[in-house]
Fold:
Amino acid sequence: MLIKEFKTQFFTELSELYPQTEIQSFFNIIIEYKLNLTRIDVALQPDFEIKSVDLNFLKNALSELSKFTPIQYIIGETEFFGLKFKVNKNVLIPRPETEELIQSIIEDSKNLGEIKILDIGTGTGCIAISLAKNLPNATIFALDISSEALKTAKENALLNNASVKFIEADILNLDELPSTYSIIVSNPPYVRELEKQHMQKNVLDNEPHLALFVEDDNPLLFYNKIGDLAKKHLSSKGNLYFEINQYLGKETAELISEKDFKNVQLKKDMFGEDRMLKASI
Structure:
C-alpha cells in the first residue's frame, strides 16, 4: 500500500471519532515511529511503498485508535521532560502538568548540597528519573505498590541511565518510611469516582484505575497518609511537594496546614488550575 492511500484510510476511519488536528498528530506519530518518516517526508513521497510487515503494525494501530486506545500505549513509549519513557497499561501516561512539578523541585533544589528525595507512587518513574537526571546532588528513591509498575520504572531508569533506588510497598499500610529525606514528592491517586463522567474514554478504558481513583467520601486519603509520614521523615527544613486534584486545592492545603507544615503554597499549572502544593517542615 502507498503511504498516501494509507493516510486517506487513516483519516476516513477516524474522522468521526477525533478532531482533524488530533488525527493528524496520531498519523505523524505512528509514521515517524514505524517508518522513520517526518510529516515533510510524507508530503514529498506520497508514493512511498509501505512494507507488509510495517503495514500490519500501522493497520493495527488504526484499529486500536478506533477503540480509543491511547497512542502512547500503541507505540509503547512517550516523551516527558525531554526524556523517553516506556509506557504500558500497568502505568499512567505522564502528563505535561507533572513536568511543572518537577521543574519547581529542580529550581528549589539545584543549589543545595547532598540531598535525598523520595517519590511516592512512582508509576513510570517519570518524576524520580527526571529529578535524577537534573539533580546530580540528589540520591533518589521511588516507591510504588505495583510490582508491574516498578518493573516498567526500572526499565525506564536503565533506558535513561538514571540512578534510582526502587521500593515496593503499599504507602497506606506503612507506619514508617525507610529513611529521612530532604524532599518527599508524590502524584498520588486523586480523581474521585464522581469525576469519571468528565473523563475521556481513552483514559477510563485503558489507564490503571489503581493509580487514578479514590473514593468520593475520602478523596484526600493519600495526602493525609503521606502528610503524616512526611511529618516524621522529612529532615530539618525539608519540603513536601504534591500534585493535587484541581477541584480540591483549598481542602488539600487545609489538610496539610492542620498537620503543622509551614509555608503551605498552592501553585497553578499552565492551564490556571490549582495543581501543585508545596509545604515545609
Observations:
- Residues 20-35 form the longest helix (16 residues).
- Residues 89-280 form a domain with the Rossmann fold fold (CATH 3.40.50.150).
